[in-house]
Amino acid sequence: GCVFYINENLLKPVYTHNFSAEDTEKDNIKGLFKYSLKEPLLVNGCAFALLVISDEQKYTKNEQKIFKTCALLAANIIKEIELTDIMKMQVKALQDGIVEINGFNKVIQEQNKKILEADKIKNKFLSNVSHELRSPLNSIIGFSDMLMAEAFGKLNDKQKEYVNDIQIAGIHLLGMVNEILDISKIEAHAVRMNYSSFDVYLCLKEVLNILKPLYMKKQLIVANKVSEGTFVTADYQKLQQIFFNLISNAIKFTPDSGKIEIFTKSSSKYLSIAVKDNGIGIALKNHRKIFKKFEQISPSTKEGMNSTGLGLTITKELVKLHNGKIILQSRINEGSSFIVKLPLKINCCHD
Questions:
Q1: H or E segment at 89?
Q2: Which range has highest mean pLDDT (14-23, 30-39, 162-171, 254-263)?
Q3: How many domains does the chain have?
Q4: Contacts of residue 95, Cβ cutoff 8 Å, sequence gap at least 6
Q5: Can you tell me the distance from the alpha carbon of 257 to that of 288, in angstroms, rounded to the nearest whole number?
């Protein structure tokens, strides 16, 4: 007998017995012997080959029945052989792929290790530089405060203007240095929380005194509506940094002669602290974006105000460290309200 693969124009022999290859071409199949049986080999109803046997004697019905059964078995065997070969090829390809992927993973792991090491060096450098810059900046701001208070003698209007410019530049630079230092600590998971109970009014008052030159230059009305004796258990310096970031941000985006209000509201579980302004507002599509690192609203709206793009990112992280949350309510040309919700009870103090 003989098995042929079905091709468009040619029956190619897969297995032959008692026939030469020349006898198995398509045109010669019928003339191999006087009597022959042919049965297509089917898989899922589709013929993929033809089984042919030939003899000089006529085949009986029983032989024809056996032949059909053999054709069915042959179809299954051939396809299993093919599938086995295909599976072997696929397994080899998969194994080769795994080896290649493992090689890539090793390279990626080495690169990630280098990136992490470089990041640690960067954070350490930023932390050291920030600490070195803080001391002279605090001195500059402190002495400029004394000059403005005319502690060393009277100043004329021009001198007061120059000293005020020194104050404003120093405050801006100190804010940027603090942001760089804070983000490096946050990313290095090196922020330590020092909880204590204190008056929010006094904490806020200190921040407003620092920022006074900024909002006075724009003739802004800044209203501290927090009642004296409003106590909270939190990290004093971290809450001051939250106030500094939110209020300085409000100053940037509030037009001259505008208004900023800070007030609190208590519930059974939270103390809510709101910083509200009547500035340019923030589009709904940017509400999440502005809390991402280095994301800022279009620079054209800032009128040259300096920013690292880290303030709100740091604020959100500092609020999270207090187990609190920050909410933004704002629309374009309708001002903005940043609401910080701090828990009244601290479950645990953590580093």
A1: helix 61-148
A2: 254-263
A3: 2
A4: none
A5: 28
Q: Which helix (H) or strand (E) holds 287?
A: none
CATH number of the domain within which 333 lies? 3.30.565.10
* Domain range for 202: 192-343
Q: Using the predicted structure, report yes or no on whether residue 168 has a pLDDT greater than 70.
A: yes
Domain shared by 198 and 331, yes or no: yes
- Compute the CA torsion angle 134, 138, 144, 148 (nearest 10 deg): 140
**Rg for the chain, CA atoms, rounded:** 41
At 3 the pLDDT is 55
pLDDT of residue 231: 93
Whether 166 is covered by a domain: the verdict is no
Token couple for 308: 């690292």
Whole-number Cα distances in Å, 206 to 209, 241, 248, 288: 5, 11, 14, 30
State the pLDDT confidence band at 306, using cuts at 50, 70 and 90.
low
Query: Please, which residues bridge with residue 337 across strands?
Result: 276, 329
Q: Could you tell me the two tokens for 30?
A: 């019928």
Q: Are 272 and 340 in contact (CB under 8 A)?
A: yes
Q: Output helix, strand, coil percentages for the chain, rounded to the nearest 5.
A: 55, 20, 25
- Residue 339, strand partner residues: 274, 327
Residue with tokens 């004329």: 156
